[in-house]
Amino acid sequence: MTEAIRIEGVSKRFGNLQALDKISLSVPHGSFFGLLGPNGAGKTTLIGILGGLVRADSGNASILGHNVMGQNLEYKRRVGIVPQELLYDPFFTVREALIFQSKYFGLHNNGKHVDYLLEKLHLQDKAKINTRRLSGGMKRRLMIAQALVHSPPVIVLDEPTAGVDINLRLTLWDFIRELRADGRTIILTTHYLEEAEELCDEIALMRDGRIVAQDKTTHLLANFEENIRVRLKITGSVPKTLPPHERQGDYAIFSLPDCSHINALLNTVHNSGGTITDMEVSRADLEDVFIAMMKAH
Ligand SMILES: Nc1ncnc2c1ncn2[C@@H]1O[C@H](COP(=O)(O)OP(=O)(O)OP(=O)(O)O)[C@@H](O)[C@H]1O
Known about the structure:
Blueprint: E1 3-14, E2 17-28, E3 32-36, H1 43-50, E4 58-63, E5 66-67, E6 79-82, H2 94-104, H3 111-120, H4 136-148, E7 154-158, H5 166-181, E8 185-189, H6 193-199, E9 202-207, E10 210-216, H7 217-222, E11 228-236, E12 246-248, E13 251-256, H8 262-271, E14 274-283, H9 286-296
Parallel strand pairs: 3-8, 3-9, 6-7, 7-8
Antiparallel strand pairs: 1-2, 1-4, 4-5, 9-10, 11-13, 11-14, 12-13
The protein binds adenosine-5'-triphosphate.
């Protein structure tokens, strides 16, 4: 598989703050890639470098083989970036803004594609409204449409669902999945980890300007050592020799490597005269992996 994005040893300082520290990352073309990390990890700075908005101090980055750091702006045709902040031009209607954006790319007859984007992003009935009059969620949809006017093969979405209601979030993901099925590469940052777990086939976890893990989502979950979570409510005599656990009110929470350890746990409770009055078993999710990784680094 070719690489949609290649980042090699990219560093960026803001004054005393090392926002990015020799980041290297490879995003396969055609993948749905999640870039996750706590506030301030450096995700937006890295995306800014890919979009030519932030100048790296050192390192290299390319999109589909086109360097993003030199004078050649050819890479801009290959990528559509949806930034986190709501940026819009208050002088245009929604449709005018998209037609205008198309012209930046030399697309002078882009009306059909603009109408397609308006429909897919549920903005048709807002087409003739001034962008100032859009709600926050609608402005975000307009920004997504703006990033797609030139049908870029690589799409970078920095928290696209922040401030978007649940119905729209679902339709938005359907649309993004369609784009992906069409062969595009999607790079996503989000703080909704269940969203990342469902959508992304590969994930990089960032912290303090560094990548602390990068793997297929299924591998990250399968290799997590505390894969099974058992929540028990024990009444009667609570055994003194319980394996390590956390307390949550009346419940004891156990993290086990796999299901084969459940029997031994239940036997320990039973043999000491304890009674289990409630039990819940769940698999670790991306949030558990994320929290454990952040603690470890
Ligand atoms: N222009 C700037 N000047 C100074 N510091 C900056 C600038 N841009 C970002 N930073 C700092 O760099 C660090 C990384 O910020 P960045 O926005 O890349 O993080 P992030 O992972 O996108 O966070 P969030 O999840 O909150 O969006 C932060 O400590 C931030 O305060």
